[in-house]
Amino acid sequence: MRHRPRRAPLAACAALLVLPAALTACGTSADPNAKEITVYSADGLRGEKGDGFYDQVFKDFEKKTGIKVNYVESGSGAAVQRLARERSHTQADVVVTLPPFIQQADGKGLLATYRPKGSEQVAAGDKDPAGRWTSVVNNYFCFIHNSEELPKPPKTWQDLLDPKLKGKLQYSTPGVAGDGTAVLVKALHDFGSTDAAMTYFAELQTNNVGPSSSTGQLAPRTDKGELLVANGDVQMNYANTKSLPHQGIFFPAAKPGAKPSTFALPYAAGLVKNAPHTANAKKFLDHLLSEPVQRQVSAIGGGFAARQDVKATDAHAKELSALMKGVDIFEPDWKDIDKNLPGYLDAWRKATGG
Fold first, then answer.
1. Most distant CA pair in the chain: distance in Å?
2. Using CA atoms, how far apart are residues 94 and 153, in angstroms rounded to an integer?
3. pLDDT tens for residues 139-154?
4. What's the whole-model pTM score?
5. Within 10 Å of residue 166's Cβ, how many Cβ atoms?
6. Residues 6+ apart with CB under 8 A from 193
7. What is the pLDDT of residues 295-321, one digit of tens each?
8. CB under 8 Å to 95, separation ≥6 — which residues?
9. CB 224 within 8 A of CB 186
10. Among candidates 109, 53, 110, 40, which has minimal Cα distance to 79?
């Protein structure tokens, strides 16, 4: 297992996490020939102790190409917001974020067309038909529970309303955190309508601790018993089970008697439009989808390879396969979510007072 990356909200220059070169003035070199790139990424793939998926990928990429990677970590929504703010003076070369925020970046005209080598092996549903983004690490939405104080996880949404969870349940904020937005997506699917989902969220507020801009902050709190239930994603929570052993992964069913269910929540990468170092960025995207790196997705990152022709057989891959056994996987209508997300978020804020 690998140590879980710290999930911190994106702030100003002080919040930049740099691997391995320093960023100056919160930006990158204006020289298009500089041997560097800047990656804006959702949190979850970097190791706190330098032993995560990104850590290995960046190290190998620099050794192979001589190109240094400047890394900026944030929530999915925050990454796209920053790209939009910097449109007139683009700083990033590559963005890696969760749906529906990769679709949002595309809709805002922030991505350029590029089909990395190996993307032909990625399933059609996991990449943009126009070639503006492609999944690089597959992943799934989940919840976690404290396995010592709450050894039997809740089975359904209704179980999360149990009074014993008052002040012991928290989910990250939809619209800010990718995993938090996933909570909203799952509820919309399971309850069948916006009104029904919002009625539920209003009821859940009795137990909910409050907003959280970072899903990763919830895993340590759950492990300690400060929380009994929180949201997460399989890659993140599986990868940190060695350092946070008192968390268990579960998938709530829509209603009693139904099978547990989830949906794919992949890390998707795109070339930023007007990137300062376009040629370097293309090399990096090719590297991410190369077969050796895709084999590291499970072995090091605790996730699922995006390439269909990569059949991982390492111990982690086998454990991940067992974890997903018996869980129904549905496919959200990401076009609808991308189009109507502002309305869904407004309804959620009204229901919860957020």
1. 60
2. 38
3. 999 999 999 999 999 9
4. 0.83
5. 12
6. none
7. 999 999 999 999 999 998 899 999 999
8. 39, 40, 41, 79, 80, 83, 102, 105, 110, 111, 269, 270, 272
9. no
10. 40
Site of tokens 């969760």: 98
Tokens encoding 91: 């700083």
